[in-house]
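Moderator note: this is an archived Q&A kept for reference. The question asked for a predicted structure of one protein chain; the sequence and the answer are reproduced below.
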Amino acid sequence: MEFSELTRRQFLRVSAIAGGGLLVACGGGGGGGGSNSGNPGDGTNEPIDAQEYAVGEFLRLSTDNRVHILVGASEIGQGALTSMAMIVAEELDVDWEMVTAEHSPVAARFNNPYFGGLLQFTVASATTRGYFDTQRQIGAAVRQMLIQAAADRWEVTRESLRTDRGFVYDDANGRSASYGELAEEAASYRVPLTPPLKEPSQYRIIGQSKQRNDAAAKVTGTLQYGIDVDLPGMLTAVIARPPRFFGQALTVDDNAALAVPGVREVHTTPAGVAVVADDYWSAEKGRQALEVRWNELLAGRTDSDLTRSAYELRLNLPGVPIRIDGLVPVAQLAAAEVRSADYYFPFQAHAAMEPLNVTVDYDGSRADIWTGSQSPTLDKTFASIILGLLPNQINFHTMSSGGGFGRRGNVFADYVRDACFVARAVRQPVKVMWTREDDMKGGFYRPAAAVRVSAAVDNQGNITAWTHRAVTQDVTAILYAEELLDTLAEGTLPPLKELTDLETGMPYDIDNVLMDAHLTVNLTMPALWMRSVNKYTDVFAQETFIDEVAARYSRDPYQYRRGMLNNEPRLLAVLDAAAQAANWGGPNGGRSQGLAVLGHWMSYVAQVVELSVSADKVVTIHRVISAVDVGTAVNPDLVVAQVESAIVFALTSVFYGEITLNDGVVQQSNYDDYPVLRMFETPEMETIVLPSDHAPGGVGELGVPALGPALVNAIFAATGETVRELPLSKLGYRIAERSRS
């Protein structure tokens, strides 16, 4: 993709700053306030209103050669502030030790190209995939301008110069100049739209395991999360929420609450009743003292048992086709055997470590907002509507998040909306806190799902036809809004698999495939994407059933998969790498192994779980081996960290993850009845990152979907028991403390 294509909604502008440094700004499609003077480009762009488009710096180069980069993606633990800065630094050709980074303002020029440049959105493993090309080309463009400045100063050709670690060198004449020295001159040049980029063989930053930019701050405890924001005169608020979703306060007796020392005000909001106090504990005591009668006439009444029954009934009915290959009915008639299995998965909570929180400083004419967010564009938009402000009257500070997993990528901005309603009533700095109980009982959830898979098999055990039916609430179509709009503009309608995450990407060489789905609508049950979305359930059914079919015909699961991946060389490569690292089929001291594979987000993973199971169903996980191909790995250490953190996340979901509802009321409330994996339960992990020169793929969700089926396949190998529902704790399985041997 050429730079001119990437700048359909963006362009660079460069100017000198105080002290002779260089300011690089990126114009975009509106939003935000402020302005930067500077050159609007090379003259090929249409005239742009600087007030509207120049909304702050993207890259600041100081005279001391320090480089400060603003990153449009959210830092939710995945290392975005490091990897995005590495991409720019690579093409800029600077000393990595001189680079710092922070979250950008919420403005159109920082939007993620993966989403058509429409918004800042850190979901769908799309950060590196979306920003990689633009970040490189911005760095390369500035480097070319610095080279031109040196060439003009020394009266030599650009081709005779080279750059290295923040300096331009004229080797023929034995001289050099730092970027900082050249910055002011470079600011007068027009920005090249198609700067030459480095070949991968020239990389010296991309592909290296650089230490995270935030590592020291995390170690010292000085990293600021949203929950750490503290302003002079700040109040704290908590909200009493209805026991059922979408209930409303009917009557409120706040006398006892207002009598609690430190409680200042009580306000009824659309979310419930807010208690505002000097500090959190006073607010919480005030909330406990409230007497509220709730109007639940329109409240949600979702029930877990009834949901399961309804979903299982729908498995018997044809759904909306997602994928149709070949002639499945004909292949089934000709098969030696047709086998099928039904699976069920409950609602699950994101259960992030940092509870939701938003701080708002609103005075009626302007506002500052601080929070960890995966969707700051949408959050800021909702805030402007509720506060009655223009976007350029709001300064939205995207903070690092102590976990998100999709919960902070809520397109309805629920926790930001709640805080803005409170701030509108209070009119002074206020932090609105959610307890973990608030989020567990009143948040958004991974939707429940039922899946039916079937395989038609010939006499040799080869699969000749495959069907896959899913029933769930679909929450992913909005991610593909631009593709939908583009195809509708062309007078066509895209296939459903392009608008959802339900198509599993089933990679096997099977000629006849039918996948369909029932996308249920339940407006009173808040469902949201959760790390790996529907891949968590669909791949589980697919990969565990593959093992059952292989066992039925006495086929080795590894070799069985190998024989069906002739058209997927990258997936076959990770499968072989994982099996080799696990010594698949070799002596293992009585341990059992299971494996699973996945290709999605432009990345590929194979995982092997090695375990043993006691007679009373205590599972000892001895190790987990992962092999991944993520294309160009910007920072391999971050890739490993992401995959292994996903393993911990997946083990939590597989063993413990279940939200149950009784007549609309969530029964779980905190880590005591919704456990998360503890350190002593975490297995040994080995992650192999295969070298690749392909474009970068997604990593954040990659380690989740295959872990569950690999684990259950190992249990199947050890015990012969098939697992058709989760969590495992519901089936009597317990995870043992990690072996010290």
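Archived answer notes: The chain has 19 helices and 31 strands.
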